[in-house]
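Now for a specimen:

…
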Amino acid sequence: MHRLSMELSDEAKTSEVTVIGHATAKDTATILIDDTTLLLAGIEAVHDETYLTDFNDYLASSGDVTCHVSADTGKAVCLDKDGDDLAEILVYSGFALVSDVSMKNLMDAQARAVEDGNGVWGSE
């Protein structure tokens, strides 16, 4: 089990931490593996109970998640068992919004979500 600390040594700041395990969602941009809270890189949550339930259902059926946590930002890029980026899945589903416009894969996923009317982008 890995524990992350808010204060990193100089040596740790030049590396990345990998956390692997079964994940549950705290919101649509934050997951929990064991007792480690991980903020997904490049996105912000859309606070909707249905989206949170759907994300937790997805995680429950996904098996272990592998997260690579940047020592610089403390944010994680997390991949499901098939190697798919959880943040990209959430953005495409319309369950999260892009917060880092420099992440092209997320910007592309959000453009497709808007076009397809997914999640928050759908008509009520």
